[in-house]
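User: What would this chain look like folded?
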Amino acid sequence: MGAHPLHAGWILRARGRWNRAGEYGCLYTSLTAEAARAEHAKYLERAGTARTRPRELVSIDVDVRPVLDLRDVATRRSLGISLARITGDDPADLDACRAVADWARGQGYRAILAPSAASKTGTTLAVYLEGPADELGLEGGRERIAIG
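Assistant: Here's the prediction, encoded as structure tokens.
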């Protein structure tokens, strides 16, 4: 407990659905505590590990633009990616998401808002740190909730 959620070292090491490990990092967030818990549980399951130390769910105040909103069916259709692909866990699904992330970053998007792959009602916000500073603001929020 006590690790800073906005530490760049952790953000750059994160790997997942919306970034390429070793190429670019992103801060993975959820819009609700329930979705964040589901994402964390899914991460532990995929890693084949149990939680080994206490963790905290922290709130973060985010001001970012522009954002690619993949919750929108028309946007997904224009990019040729389905909801099933966005939320799927097969290697082909993850590669497709990373290809969208590559494209989005190339177009100047600073974040991707997408349906959660771990929670049917949740939303993930993946925030990229590179780009003009005036398009991104991250501040530690007020809440810290122990999980587990």
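The helical segments are 8-13, 33-47, 73-79, 83-87, 91-106. If you want, I can go into more detail on any region.
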